[in-house]
Amino acid sequence: DADVTQTPRNRITKTGKRIMLECSQTKGHDRMYWYRQDPGLGLQLIYYSFDVKDINKGEISDGYSVSRQAQAKFSLSLESAIPNQTALYFCATSLGGPTDTQYFGPGTRLTVL
Amino acid sequence: RKEVEQDPGPFNVPEGATVAFNCTYSNSASQSFFWYRQDCRKEPKLLMSVYSSGNEDGRFTAQLNRASQYISLLIRDSKLSDSATYLCVVNGPGEYKLSFGAGTTVTVRA
Count of CB atoms within 10 A of residue A26's CB? Predict the structure, then answer.
């Protein structure tokens, strides 16, 4: 079984809809991250969490929110989806800081019409 | 200006060839450097960390040039399975951030 899982894997939604992307991990890592990837751009950090009580904004947090329900679960929400949020979203975990190896989930391909 | 810049390629090489490419980074305070590999539509995976003295992992060699702020990756004896996008990753700006390049695509042909 995969150590980092994401659901759903693909999602098509309409502008203005609320959507939640979920991430679960069995690696026992405290640190979790949400990134988005757009063609021609590097991964951009949306939010990160160093433990259940610690949530931090990344470089592109506007329009997104997160919830760390447990050490193993970190969810990303789009409160009111817009077309430029169409992207590939990755969840990642690391044992230590972000300079430790990051383990990525398989990604969620989100399309906002 | 992007924190990390990479030649997108693609680099098309025959099996057995050597291919090398660089990335440049803008933050002179960066201390940690990595190459990640990403197969088409899949998640990135760590290929190797890059150390100041340069390091090798099998057919892969990474070099760091702090003075010119670039990192290189060389792949020897290319295999079909080396076809992928290689992401250059650098820590910073800021203590808890990684900056990812957009990737260099390598295609190895039979």
Answer: 12
Query: Which B residues 56-75 touch A at CB under 8 Å?
Result: none
What values do phi and psi take at B66, rounded to 5?
-70, -35
- Kindly report, residue by residue over B69-81, the tens digit of the pLDDT: 999 999 999 999 9
Find the helix or strand (DSSP H, E) in which A51 lies: strand A44-51
Percent of chain B predicted with pLDDT > 70: 95
Whether residue B86 contacts residue B106, with contact meaning beta carbons closer than 8 Å, is answered with yes
Q: β-strand A19-25 against A4-7: which pairing, if any?
A: antiparallel
- Alpha carbon distance A43, A58 (integer Å): 11
Cβ-based contacts of B10 with chain A (< 8 Å): none
